[in-house]
Amino acid sequence: MAMVESIVTLFLLLMLLLIIVIIFFACRPWRFFFSSRSRAIEVGGDIERPLVSDEVNLLHDQSNELHRDYDLEGASLPDANEAHFPSPRSHGLVHKQRLPVNSPNVLQGDSLVLDVVSDSPEDVVVGQTLKLPPSQLAEIQKQSRSNFESRLVQGDILDQRSCLTLEVISGPASGLRCSVQSTNPSRLPLTLGRLSKDIPINDNEVSGKHALIQWSSDKTKWEVVDMGSLNGTYLNSHPIHHPDIGSRHWGDPIGLANGDILKFGTKSQVIVHITSQSMHHIPFGVGMASDPMSMRRGGKKLPMEDVCYYHWPLPGLDQFGLFGICDGHGGDGAAKSASKLLPEIVANLLSDSLKRERVLSLHDASDVLREAFCQTESCLNHPYEGCTATVLLVWADGDENFFAQCANVGDSSCVMNVDGQQIKMSEDHKISNISERLRIGEAGEPLKDGETRLYGINLARMLGDKFLKQQDPRFSSEPYISEVVRIAQASKSFALLASDGLWDVISHKKAIQLVHQMREKNSEEGNNSAEKIANFLLNEAKTLRTKDNTSVIFLDFDTSTNNFTCKAES
Fold first, then answer.
1. According to the lineage, what is the superkingdom (predicted)?
2. Opening angle at CA 134, ends 132 and 136, nearest 5
């Protein structure tokens, strides 16, 4: 019995000893008796601060010394290249740029941080106050201001936003267009499909909600996602839908670029326009909207022959911008050509310093606009296609006022509202108008009573149609030029350009009333977007069952609304 008790006691002692050994190795008490410079550094002989973690020790062991551009006190100096290196902040280190004396940098604010590089580490003690000669300190401050200003300039350049314009170029919904800005989250994401409110593609091969387009703030780019469509989505002929098509699984987000072509089914294609514009570059609001109004009464489809565009500023001319609409007939070729030629020719004419100074001093661009129309007509080579052309030239003076002048041929009209006064900026050139009938009569061959068309066309002035102009000299490309309108900075003025699809169902007076109503409504909601007003007028024309392509450009000179916008190329 005594032997059994001895064995049990010995067994318990061994177990206790084993437990003690396990606890000893688990706690590693020897780490309190040995120090390593790779784990801590003594500062001023008083305290020890942990320097690096185990992962960083690998780098330390390779170099056998600490790099001088690490700040042991936790202060950091931003560097343009800092983003390219992993931040050591999580390990107790802060990366700080090394500052040579001949190229100092200063943190934004009142503090000056210097990292002194010395061949003798003993010369400088941590915490020592550095005293610099006045001449050296002045040089540092001068270079600091220069560096800070350059950072401000870079920040202003980067303060950009992106504008996305989608235009259906083939299929049943051809001509439909939608624009949205990356800074307008209330309108994002955009959906495309038969049931979409953004771009309703009425195509039986397109799903109700076919694809989604969103702005990725992390990647700063537009992305498209297939929403599990039945017939798939193709980007530049490459499938971007889920491999198991028809499974209703969404595809992966794919980045978009300017000029990309999206295809849905076999017929509907959408072209992508992406432009960037400085948020404060356009000093007034611009909204643009268009719709082919694709079904006439009786079910006949309408091709889209309207082209609307704007350029602010004109190339090389910071004070000038051009806004225009071309409504084609016989096709869209002449309208597309004129919409490209007119801005280029106007910019070229105004690049002449004498002509530009004459416009700015006399506040009159009549000669420039007349010459631009003349050169555009000469350059057009469309014998059987023509178009209306209405342009509004806007420029700024040195006192932050704007001036506007309109030129047009055809029946795409422009109207302005300045200080509550309605101003008609264009003139309709329909053959039924009295002024045109008088002009034609003075040309030597008056129209007959009741005659409202020549060779099947109801317009007497247009660009293009070279064959008709050769057959009948009563056709003309001479533009009407409006008076110049001055727009004070504090005014609540606006301008409205639209093709005849709007004016066929809404008068100038009614359009201005609708703008005022929409402005009042939006101001109560704290949102007074020029783009919203343009779309509102477009939808109003659709409600009133207009039978023609409709395009609208709305310019809001009320700067209190901060309607800065981006350029969306057509």
1. Eukaryota
2. 65
